[in-house]
Design brief:
alpha+beta, five-stranded antiparallel sheet, 58% helix, 17% strand, elongated
Length: 173
């Protein structure tokens, strides 16, 4: 059943609002996308702070224009799934890349990152980056490394002293 102008306006407003709060967006071509896939993807998206929406391209383009983005019509072909990362720039790309591994019909088309449209290769590279929590853990480890090294050096000197004292003790016995 066709949507009324008011319903379309609500969809554009909702999309515009979510695009205004986004950190990144991934557009995916979804031929062969089933309801089971949709439910599973939405559930996984909620867990990682990602909104998953399907809207007509004309409504999507209007919402993008409302937020100052212009995308060429040939960039978005076929049925488009919009995945909006609200908390983390990498989350939406990781979610779609992981989801598309098992499904050949789902292809990444492109996305928006830092206010610019980027192609599928950039999104795939973004999906390989570690998450924010992993990056923070790596940062803390690198901050901790000099301290750990210093403690090991000090412990090494004490160990060497104990070995020397043990060698003197065994030599006197």
């Amino acid at each position: 059943m066709p949507k009324t102008r008011a319903q379309k306006g609500e969809i554009v407003d909702e999309l515009s609002q979510k695009l205004g709060k986004m950190k990144s967006v991934v557009f995916t071509s979804i031929s062969g996308y089933t309801m089971d896939d949709a439910n599973l993807l939405r559930q996984k998206g909620r867990e990682v702070g990602v909104e998953v929406m399907v809207a007509k391209k004309t409504l999507l383009n209007k919402a993008l224009e409302n937020n100052g983005f212009t995308i060429a019509p040939d960039e978005l072909e076929g049925s488009i799934l919009t995945t909006i990362g609200l908390d983390d720039e990498v989350a939406a790309a990781k979610l779609i890349a992981e989801f598309a591994k098992d499904r050949e019909a789902i292809q990444i088309v492109g996305g928006i990152l830092e206010g610019k449209f980027v192609g599928r290769d950039a999104i795939k590279q973004l999906a390989t980056l570690p998450s924010r929590e992993q990056l923070l853990a790596m940062f803390v480890r690198s901050l901790n490394a000099p301290i750990s090294g210093f403690v090991n050096v000090l412990a090494g000197n004490l160990r060497s002293l104990v070995y020397v004292l043990n060698a003197i003790k065994t030599a006197k016995i």
